[in-house]
Structure prediction request, 152 residues.
Amino acid sequence: MLLIECPYCGPRNEVEFHYGGEAHVPYPEDPSALSDREWSEYLFYRANPKGILAERWQHSAGCRKWFNALRDTRTYRFEQVYEMGTPRPDLPPVPEIPADAAEPDRFAAAAATEGRTETPLADSTGASGTSSAGTSTTDPSSRTEQNGDHHG
Ligand SMILES: [Zn+2]
Prediction:
């Protein structure tokens, strides 16, 4: 179980909380002036970073108040919580996590496959072709170094 710190109540079990999506997504000033694409970008397009993400959370089984949190999507760790309406705090730069220690990498892999569904599978036919093609890929220029010594 994950402990989430409500800024009003202190640390509580994650089951008391309700996730509210990315924080600091501004409501359009004039929604009727937006194209359908711009409106859908407001509704559905989110940053989805590998790293720190500002999120909205509600302590729904406690004080029922909404607050914001900075969470690292690679580790699930809550780096900081802060009240609604306050600007996103600056965090010191987070060091890169080695690939073998980054367990949530499966989300990155899932995101990559999602993006790939729109593009045709160009490689699938070539990969199932002849396997002997790999031996002919040696660079001929590297061989000339062995017998190309004409300086005498
Ligand atoms: Zn609370």
